[in-house]
């Protein structure tokens, strides 16, 4: 049974001997500024923890639930390691996505089965982000995406493509009409039995390599651009050279004349050279080897704005549920609140070094908006958007009302705590009743998981 305090409600405990491989037992092992990098991804009933080579899936709501260990096949030659994890949650499917230092994306079932493996680009995957934007006056269409962030590069996978691939894999896995050959094929599967996932790739390194980035949503095409059915996305990046940069991402590679010429001429030239080489030298036939994965070519990315303020450096970025606001932390201990549509900083906090931020929604009781019925179920309009700020150096968590509202609460937390938030659930844009955005607190020293209470009086 959950235990409620003034601002926190205890939900469960993750303590166990299998956490020693991640540094559990040492004071502050889970702290965001800890020397040992430990990755965490939270779902409504599960937690995934990862280090350089291991992913542990555990259920925090049921202490008797079996814990699953996943050891991805990593390249020892290139010292490949796990650098990002995130849950992908659909209606009846839940999987864990893993990104590596070689730019490889892997998707595993909750039982530890490899479902898909694909090379995105030959750079370290910094972050895996899941975002859903609802259709409104600014967004002509709804969009649900998985964004893969790498230094100077952003990739976007459509949520519907991932869902179709997962549905096909689970149908094949649970089918009762296997033959022996199909069983063997599935056992020997290298994670590509359902083909490569289509995606778009953009180079956003014009102002230097980024340390974090996000696709914030769909934006209109340029004013002088011919209207078409192609989409344009806005991406915000942060880094050492430019604190904040913004780009318009086009999904139509053919709109770039130089890119179109290169895409046609270069492959044809190399093909011709290879053919002549075979005719002249008559090389010996090479043994059958697995062909290298062909990487996606870059689509066009146009610069929208850039903020340089040396020696300030961008460190972390988090998006609001709609993607219209972004909270950015920098190396000077400041937090910038960015309007991603106007691309203007609308608020700033100072004195928060090594801070971590998450947007959340809270119920603030108002005399003029009290429900007429005691059985009133709060809807989206009853909640206000807030920003939770975890300042580990101060040992406090603060919640501020957006955009220019006051500080609603402040509570002390232990040094070894980490602020977490469940991943976006695909298809939740039309959820009824409305499920507000919550923030959780995981105490690494005690293993206790708590949720910040959403009701303020």
TrEMBL record:
Pfam families: RAB3GAP2_N. Residues 37-420 form the Rab3-GAP regulatory subunit N-terminal domain. This is Rab3-GAP regulatory subunit N-terminal domain-containing protein. It comes from Hibiscus trionum (Flower of an hour).
């Amino acid at each position: 049974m959950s235990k409620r305090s003034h601002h926190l409600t205890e939900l469960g405990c993750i303590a166990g001997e299998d956490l020693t491989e991640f540094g559990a037992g040492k004071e502050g092992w889970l702290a965001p500024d800890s020397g040992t990098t430990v990755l965490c991804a939270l779902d409504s009933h599960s937690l995934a923890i990862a280090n350089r080579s291991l992913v542990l899936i555990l259920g925090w709501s049921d202490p008797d639930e079996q814990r699953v260990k996943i050891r991805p096949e990593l390249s020892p030659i290139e010292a490949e390691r796990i650098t990002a994890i995130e849950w992908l949650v659909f209606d009846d499917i839940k999987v864990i996505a893993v990104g590596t230092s070689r730019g490889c994306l892997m998707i595993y079932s909750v039982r530890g089965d490899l479902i898909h493996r694909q090379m995105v680009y030959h750079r370290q995957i910094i972050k895996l982000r899941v975002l859903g934007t609802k259709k409104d006056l600014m967004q002509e269409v709804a969009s649900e995406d998985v964004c893969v962030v790498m230094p100077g590069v952003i990739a976007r996978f459509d949520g519907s493509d991932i869902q179709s691939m997962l549905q096909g894999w689970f149908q094949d896995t649970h089918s009762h009409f296997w033959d022996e050959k199909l069983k063997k094929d599935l056992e020997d599967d290298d994670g590509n039995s359902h083909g490569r996932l289509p995606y778009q790739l953009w180079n956003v390194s014009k102002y230097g390599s980024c340390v974090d980035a996000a696709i914030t949503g769909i934006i209109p095409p340029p004013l002088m651009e011919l209207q078409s059915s192609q989409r344009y996305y806005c991406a915000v990046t942060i880094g050492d050279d430019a604190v904040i940069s913004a780009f318009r991402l086009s999904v139509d590679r053919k709109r770039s004349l130089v890119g179109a010429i290169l895409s046609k001429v270069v492959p044809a030239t190399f093909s011709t050279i290879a053919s002549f080489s075979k005719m002249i030298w008559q090389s010996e036939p090479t043994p059958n080897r697995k062909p290298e994965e062909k990487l996606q070519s870059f689509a066009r990315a146009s610069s929208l704005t850039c903020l340089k303020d040396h020696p300030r450096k961008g460190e972390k970025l988090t998006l609001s549920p709609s993607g219209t606001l972004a909270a950015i932390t920098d190396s000077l201990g400041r937090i910038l609140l960015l309007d991603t549509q106007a691309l203007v900083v609308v608020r700033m906090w100072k004195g928060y070094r090594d801070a971590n931020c998450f947007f959340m929604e809270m119920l603030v009781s108002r005399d003029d908006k009290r429900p007429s019925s005691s059985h009133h179920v709060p809807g989206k309009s009853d909640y206000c958007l807030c920003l939770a700020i975890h300042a580990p150096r101060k040992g406090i968590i603060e919640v501020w009302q957006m955009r220019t509202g006051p500080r609603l609460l402040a509570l002390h937390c232990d040094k070894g705590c980490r602020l977490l938030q469940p991943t976006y659930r695909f298809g939740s844009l039309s959820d009824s009743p409305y499920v507000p955005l919550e923030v959780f607190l995981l105490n690494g020293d005690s293993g206790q998981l708590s949720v910040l209470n959403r009701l303020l009086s």
